[in-house]
């Protein structure tokens, strides 16, 4: 499992999120919600910058419109956020990455994430999940066979803290969005993902992004062509995957 400095590199996008804040049963009892479909829902589990980060909320808005789903971005970090100002100044030494990850470890947050997913599964006939960086391991857990079809499909974008065991137990359809340069989602894990899902008969879509780094899908710069193209392609691939599995029967 891996978290590194690449997990906190990025660029804040322009635009104003259009969703709403609701009370929700998480550690902080809050979630950002976009869209209003009564039948299909998506839970977006954000990267280390959490549910307040504008890029994540803008992505939720896009997914809500283009998938035609209600998209939930719960706060799984108990109201805590990383230092955005330090990100803008690339002052990574000012970001307490180790402490943050320790306070919000897999062991601490997995029960809460599973509980939120079960709540949405009970409320919507179609339900999927997407997770970036930190959220990548979590969607693989939601897709595990032991959770008995909790999700109709999941998407993992440049996952962090992911293990081979997570990959081994995936059963729901999985889309993986994998940048070429990624210290967290290594070449070894990428190869294991491809071979294992294929061997286990799991439906999957492996999207490879050459020439870009970890976090490009949520914190890439619109001013850099290859990152801008990766963001657009990643969003479009996610929309297509969700529309395939969450559309009304």
TrEMBL record:
SUPFAM superfamilies listed in its UniProt record: alpha/beta-Hydrolases
Source taxon at top rank: Eukaryota
Pfam families associated with the record: DLH
InterPro entries found in the cross-reference section: AB_hydrolase_fold, Dienelactn_hydro
GO molecular function: hydrolase activity
Domain named Dienelactone hydrolase: residues: 31-245
Name this protein carries in UniProt: Dienelactone hydrolase domain-containing protein
């Amino acid at each position: 499992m891996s978290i590194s400095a690449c997990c906190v590199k990025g660029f804040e996008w322009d635009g104003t999120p259009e969703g709403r804040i609701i009370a929700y049963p998480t550690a902080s009892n809050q979630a950002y919600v976009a869209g209003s479909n009564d039948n299909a829902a998506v839970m977006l589990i954000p990267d280390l910058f959490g549910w307040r980060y504008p890029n994540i909320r803008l992505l939720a808005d896009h997914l809500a419109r283009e998938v035609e789903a209600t998209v939930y971005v719960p706060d799984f970090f108990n109201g805590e956020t990383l230092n955005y100002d330090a990100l803008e100044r690339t002052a990574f030494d000012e970001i307490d990455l180790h402490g943050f990850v320790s306070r919000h470890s897999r062991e601490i947050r997995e029960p809460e994430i599973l509980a939120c997913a079960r709540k949405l599964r009970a409320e919507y006939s179609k339900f999927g999940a997407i997770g970036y960086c930190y959220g990548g391991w979590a969607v693989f857990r939601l897709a595990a066979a032991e959770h008995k079809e909790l999700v109709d499909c999941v998407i993992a974008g440049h996952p962090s803290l992911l293990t081979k065991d997570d990959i081994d137990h995936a059963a729901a359809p999985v889309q993986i969005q994998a940048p070429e340069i990624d210290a967290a989602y290594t070449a070894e894990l990428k190869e294991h993902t491809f071979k294992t899902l294929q061997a286990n008969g799991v439906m999957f879509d492996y999207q490879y992004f050459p020439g870009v780094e970890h976090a490009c899908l949520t914190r890439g710069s619109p001013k850099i062509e290859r990152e801008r193209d990766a963001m657009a392609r990643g969003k479009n691939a996610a929309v297509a995957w969700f529309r395939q599995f969450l559309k009304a029967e």
